[in-house]
Each structure stands twice: as structure tokens, then as C-alpha cells.
């Protein structure tokens, strides 16, 4: 489904600040994988996503989506197969437009024509899809999205993304900016959608136990490399302690405080 | 005289609607307007003086404006030039182009030519005074453009344009090339401005290269005054208030011009007043925003408690 070959990204090449954010990463994501990704701050998780989506080009290496080399394709072209949610709930929706307008814009990927698609039937369809969120949004379809809370906005973004039927979804700490209650709601919604729509998913989280509990496969990143890749039985048997031990084993480093690097939730 | 204010307000509202599209919907502050307005005037005047139907000259002026807007958008898209600078570049180049369109002169009178307005006048004949005939004509024109815009911004393309001004990342994530979106939006905006320029030339009876001087500020002031009057998120109200703002702006300018001398104002002070009007609108918007923020903060708190 997705293949990364010898992918690397260097920022500010040739300056004193030269920074290799991704170093020779090789990864194959299979159809139906639900991958959780952990790693300390600055280990390159977001950069990996930005390379997959084409926010910027890789310094070296190639990216294949469904066998096609997309390494030099602009972001908007790749976006047709990729759904992405950011940590900041403001980035997923247009705040000065109504819920229904937002949902209409994101319903179909690609160039939009001069058709008026937002009609009564479409509204009924959107309303029906909003009900399961259990946030009462189905009664607020004419309200501006700017009036919603962060949790409501992120849940809406998630729903909108799912309805656009992407082949791969990338979630970048998409619950980190929410309060614990809303974070849990959005996370539950995420797992429900992933199952219901059989979505191939990559989810970055800063929470180790979450990374263990959710998903079918777990990646750990450090200094721009994927240092751990487990799935199946091996993943099911993981615990936070085992994960920390593994990290030390691989890196042969000792840390005064593990929590400083990998916060446990 | 009061009809004159309405006629001018309605005529210039077409330009203000263009400014509204770039500044408010696309969040693309576009200064091409100072060049595309006289471009529309020049195209229309030249065609009319060569005997072309005034109605066709309107279409040509619209097309000329679209082309000017597309040049600005392309400079911005391809050369990664900031939008303000891209607009200034096109505006500057248009000055020379406009003189060429006018036949290497700065001014082209339309005396004794058949314009859209002389045809309107003939149509109404003796039933109405001219000013009222113009008023009805421009009312229909402004409302027609308004309704077409309302319709456009309800299409999938129009909605996407609206979202781009607010959150371009969302539109990219949607698989849309925002370069095309800017081309369409800035093109449409300047098309309306060119159309307004064509009407202005026919209304005043001449085209002049300096016709566009400061027009962008007049447009912006109209948009902001309109925002004062009505608040809404519905596109039909947003476009309506641009038209109202344009009429009010002309009214204020009229007051300044004819009664300003009571407080020692001269017509030369009008630009200063326009600028101050915009600053005043900005201040009021800031205050409103702050109020909204405080309200929002209070709202968030109560939700946390629940
Ligand atoms: N646009 C950028 N320009 C320069 N450096 C960057 C940029 N994006 C990320 N980096 C650097 O790359 C490294 C990895 O960052 P990031 O991928 O955001 O880490 P993570 O998401 O794992 O916390 C960091 O050292 C960061 O400073
Ligand atoms: Mg990150």
C-alpha cells in the first residue's frame, strides 16, 4: 500500500544548523494496518508524515503509494488518497463557514466544479452521519464551525475525513490539544471509524500505553530512525516497561528519567 | 442629487464586490484593482468609440479585468511573490497598457457616442428623469451581479474558494490545487472591477488612465462600512452589505465634498477621510473581536465545568 525506500530528510543543508530529521527510513505499510507511532520530541514523526503527504520533498529516497512513485508529486495531488488530521483542531475545518458547508467541501476529493451539490438530500445524509458523534451537531449544521469546541471540531474533522474515503489516514497527535474527556471521545471515534471503514491508519501519539492498546502494529522512532517495528502477538504482549527496556536495549543508553523522553499516560 | 449618490453607490458596488472577494473571501489583498478599473474603462471607451455595441464592450471589459487578475495570481503562484507585491506589479504595468489601449493617450471622451447609458435613457424616454432611469438600471445591474455571486459561492467551487481564504491547508488536504483557486478568485474579482470601470467610463462620459487612482481604498472602505451595518455568515447578506456599504460610502463622500467646507474641509481632504474611515472600521473590528474572545473564553470554561 505504501512503501518508503531509503527515505531521508535533511533540513538546512550546509549550515551549522544542518539537521538530519529522517535517516534512511525503509517501511512498508500493508493494506489495513493500524500503526501507532511513538518517539521522543524531535525524533522525526511529524517530518515522516510531511514527507508522505508531500508537504516538502525528501532529500533522498522514494515514496510509493499503491505501487506508484509519488516522491515528486505535489501535496495536493497525493492528498487525493491521503486523509490527514493535525494536532491543532483549527487546521481541519474552515471556522467562518457553516458545518454543512465544511462537510460539503470535504465530501469529495479533488477539483470542484460549478455544481450546487449541497441540497436537501445531502443535508439529510450529513445529519445522519453526525448523529453517531453524539455531540448534538446534527442540530447545528448552519452554525459556523468557529463556534464549536476543540473536541467537537476534531470529531467533525475526523468524520469529514472519513467520508472523503481516503486510502490512508495520518493522525498526528490529533487528541493532544484536547482535554482528557474529549481526547477519549475522539480516540474512541477514531478506532470505531478505522474498523467500520477498514482504514489503513498511521497514528502518532505521545502516550505509550495508548500506542500499545490501540492498533495492530507499533513503530518507535528515535533520531530520525525507526528503531522498533512490532506487530501481531509480539505487540499484544507489549507493556510500557517492556517498551522502555527495548528502547534501552536498542539504543544502549541510560536516561536519568525515561518519563522526560517518553511520557507515560 | 440623492439619486446621484445611489447611482454612484450602485455602480461602484460592482468594484467593491470584487474587492470583497479578494480581501474578505480569498484573504488575498489584491492591489491590481487600481489598474484593472481604468483597464475596464479604457477597453469599453475604445470599443465604443470604434462603434462596437456598448453591451459587448462591457463583456470585453470584464474579460480584460479577468486577464489582469490572472496575471497577478500567476506572478504570485509561480514566482512565489507575496500577493501585495504581485498586485502592485500588475497595477504598475497596467498603467502603460491602459494608455496603449486608449490609443496612446491618457484620456478618451465619449461625447455623442452610443453608450449603455444613452440606450437606457432612450428606453425610458420621457417617463422618468434621467437620474431615475440610471438608478433603476444600476439597481438591476448590481442586484443581478449580487445574485450571480450568491449562486456562485454556493457551488462546490465557490464553497472551496471560501474555505481557502480561511484555511488553505484544509483545501490542499482536500486534493485541490490552490494555485487554480487563486487564479479563479482573483480573476473573477478583477473581472467585476473591470466591468465597474466600463460602466464608470460610460456614466462619466470619458475614460482616463487616472480613473483608478485610490479606487482600491474606496472599495475597501465600502466593504468595511458594510460590515458595520450588518453581521451574518450568509453569503447573500455579505454581498448585500457590500452594496449598502458602497452607497453609504458615496453618501459620506458627498457630504464631505459639499458640506465639508463648514468644518474647513476641501475636496483634497477626502482621501484622508477615507483612510481614517478604514482605520476607524479596523478599530471597531478589533474591539468586537476582543469581546468575542472574552465571551469565548468564558464559554470554554463553563464547558470544562460540565
Ligand atoms: N520545517 C522544518 N525546518 C527545519 N527543521 C525542521 C522542520 N521540521 C522539523 N524540523 C526538525 O526536524 C526534527 C524532527 O522534527 P519533528 O518531525 O517535528 O519531530 P516530532 O514530530 O517527532 O516531534 C526536529 O529536530 C525539528 O527541529
Ligand atoms: Mg510532531
Report a brief summary of the structure.
The complex is a heterodimer of chains A (265) and B (306). Chain A has helices at 45-53, 75-78, 99-107, 120-130, 150-163, 180-196, 208-213, 232-236, 240-251, 258-261, and strands at 2-11, 19-29, 34-39, 60-65, 68-69, 82-85, 168-172, 200-204, 217-222, 225-231.
Set out the fold topology:
The complex is a heterodimer of chains A (265) and B (306).
Chain A: E1 2-11, E2 19-29, E3 34-39, H1 45-53, E4 60-65, E5 68-69, H2 75-78, E6 82-85, H3 99-107, H4 120-130, H5 150-163, E7 168-172, H6 180-196, E8 200-204, H7 208-213, E9 217-222, E10 225-231, H8 232-236, H9 240-251, H10 258-261
Parallel strand pairs in A: 3-8, 3-9, 6-7, 7-8
Antiparallel strand pairs in A: 1-2, 1-4, 4-5, 9-10
Chain B: H1 2-26, H2 33-49, H3 54-79, H4 83-101, E1 107-109, H5 116-124, H6 130-152, H7 156-166, H8 168-173, H9 178-204, E2 206-208, H10 215-229, H11 235-259, H12 270-305
Antiparallel strand pairs in B: 1-2
Structure description:
- The complex is a heterodimer of chains A (265) and B (306).
- Chain A has 2 domains: 2-81 and 167-262, P-loop containing nucleotide triphosphate hydrolases (Rossmann fold); 93-165, no CATH class.
- Helices cover 34% and strands 23% of the residues of chain A.
- Chain A is built from 10 helices and 10 strands.
- Chain A has helices spanning 45-53, 75-78, 99-107, 120-130, 150-163, 180-196, 208-213, 232-236, 240-251, 258-261; strands spanning 2-11, 19-29, 34-39, 60-65, 68-69, 82-85, 168-172, 200-204, 217-222, 225-231.
- In chain A, the strands form 2 sheets. Chain A has a 6-stranded mixed beta sheet, with helices on both faces. In chain A, strands 2-1-4-5 form a 4-stranded antiparallel beta sheet, with helices on one face.
- In chain A, helix 5 (150-163) runs parallel beside helix 6 (180-196).
- The longest helix of chain A has 17 residues, at 180-196.
- Chain B is globular, with a radius of gyration of 20 Å.
- Mean pLDDT of chain B is 90; it is low at 299-306.
- Chain B is 78% helix and 2% strand.
- In chain B, helix 10 (215-229) crosses helix 12 (270-305).
- Chain B has a two-stranded antiparallel sheet.
- The A-B interface holds A 74-77, 79-80, 82-84, 86, 90-98, 101-102, 104-106, 108-118, 144, 149, 164, 179 and B 151-152, 154-157, 159-160, 162-163, 166-167, 169-178, 180, 233, 300, 303-304.
Amino acid at each position: 500500500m505504501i512503501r518508503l525506500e531509503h527515505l531521508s530528510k535533511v533540513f538546512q543543508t550546509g549550515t551549522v544548523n544542518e539537521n538530519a530529521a529522517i535517516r534512511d527510513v525503509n517501511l512498508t505499510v500493508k493494506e489495513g494496518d493500524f500503526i501507532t507511532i511513538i518517539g521522543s520530541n524531535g525524533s522525526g514523526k511529524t517530518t515522516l508524515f510531511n514527507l508522505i503527504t508531500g508537504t516538502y520533498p525528501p532529500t533522498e529516497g522514494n515514496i510509493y503509494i499503491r505501487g506508484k512513485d509519488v516522491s515528486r508529486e505535489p501535496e495536493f495531488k497525493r492528498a487525493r488518497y491521503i486523509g490527514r488530521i493535525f494536532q491543532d483542531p483549527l487546521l481541519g475545518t474552515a471556522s467562518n463557514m457553516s458545518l454543512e458547508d465544511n462537510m460539503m467541501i470535504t465530501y469529495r476529493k479533488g477539483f470542484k466544479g460549478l455544481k450546487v451539490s449541497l441540497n436537501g438530500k445531502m443535508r439529510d445524509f450529513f445529519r445522519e452521519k453526525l448523529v453517531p458523534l453524539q455531540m448534538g451537531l446534527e442540530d447545528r449544521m448552519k452554525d459556523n464551525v468557529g463556534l464549536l469546541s476543540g473536541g467537537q471540531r476534531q470529531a467533525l474533522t475526523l468524520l469529514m475525513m472519513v467520508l472523503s474515503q481516503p486510502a490512508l489516514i495520518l493522525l498526528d497527535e490529533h487528541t493532544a490539544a484536547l482535554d482528557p474527556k474529549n481526547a477519549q471521545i475522539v480516540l474512541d471515534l477514531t478506532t470505531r471509524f478505522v474498523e467500520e471503514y477498514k482504514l489503513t491508519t498511521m497514528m502518532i501519539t505521545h502516550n505509550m500505553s495508548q500506542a500499545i492498546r490501540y492498533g495492530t502494529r507499533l513503530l518507535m522512532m528515535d533520531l530520525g530512525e525507526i528503531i522498533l517495528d512490532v506487530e501481531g502477538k509480539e505487540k499484544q504482549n507489549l507493556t510500557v516497561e517492556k517498551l522502555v527496556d527495548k528502547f534501552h536495549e536498542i539504543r544502549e543508553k541510560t536516561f536519568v528519567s525515561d518519563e522526560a523522553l517518553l511520557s507515560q499516560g | 442629487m440623492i439619486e446621484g449618490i445611489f447611482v454612484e453607490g450602485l455602480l461602484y458596488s460592482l468594484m467593491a464586490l470584487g474587492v470583497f472577494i479578494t480581501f474578505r473571501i480569498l484573504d488575498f489583498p489584491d492591489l491590481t484593482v487600481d489598474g484593472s478599473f481604468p483597464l475596464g474603462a479604457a477597453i469599453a471607451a475604445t470599443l465604443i468609440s470604434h462603434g462596437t455595441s456598448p453591451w459587448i464592450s462591457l463583456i470585453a471589459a470584464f474579460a480584460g479585468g479577468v486577464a489582469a487578475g490572472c496575471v497577478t495570481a500567476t506572478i504570485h503562484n509561480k514566482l512565489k511573490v507575496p500577493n501585495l507585491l504581485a498586485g502592485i506589479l500588475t497595477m504598475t504595468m497596467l498603467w502603460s497598457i491602459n494608455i496603449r489601449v486608449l490609443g496612446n493617450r491618457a484620456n478618451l471622451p465619449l461625447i455623442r457616442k452610443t453608450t449603455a447609458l444613452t440606450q437606457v435613457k432612450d428606453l425610458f424616454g420621457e417617463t422618468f428623469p434621467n437620474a431615475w432611469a440610471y438608478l433603476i438600471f444600476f439597481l438591476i445591474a448590481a442586484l443581478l451581479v449580487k445574485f450571480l455571486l450568491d449562486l456562485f459561492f454556493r457551488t462546490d467551487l465557490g464553497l472551496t474558494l471560501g474555505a481557502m481564504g480561511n484555511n488553505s491547508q484544509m483545501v490542499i488536504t482536500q486534493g485541490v490545487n490552490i494555485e487554480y483557486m487563486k487564479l479563479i478568485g482573483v480573476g473573477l474579482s478583477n473581472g467585476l472591477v473591470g466591468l465597474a470601470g466600463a460602466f464608470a467610463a460610460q456614466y462619466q462620459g470619458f475614460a482616463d488612465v487616472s480613473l483608478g487612482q485610490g479606487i482600491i481604498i474606496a472599495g475597501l472602505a465600502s466593504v468595511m462600512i458594510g460590515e458595520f451595518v450588518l453581521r451574518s455568515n450568509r453569503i447573500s447578506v455579505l454581498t448585500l452589505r457590500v452594496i449598502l456599504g458602497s452607497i453609504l460610502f458615496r453618501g459620506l463622500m458627498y457630504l464631505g465634498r459639499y458640506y465639508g467646507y463648514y468644518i474647513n474641509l476641501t475636496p483634497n481632504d477626502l482621501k484622508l477621510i477615507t483612510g481614517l474611515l478604514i482605520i476607524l472600521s479596523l478599530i471597531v473590528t478589533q474591539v468586537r473581536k476582543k469581546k468575542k474572545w472574552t465571551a469565548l473564553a468564558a464559554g470554554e470554561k463553563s464547558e470544562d465545568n460540565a
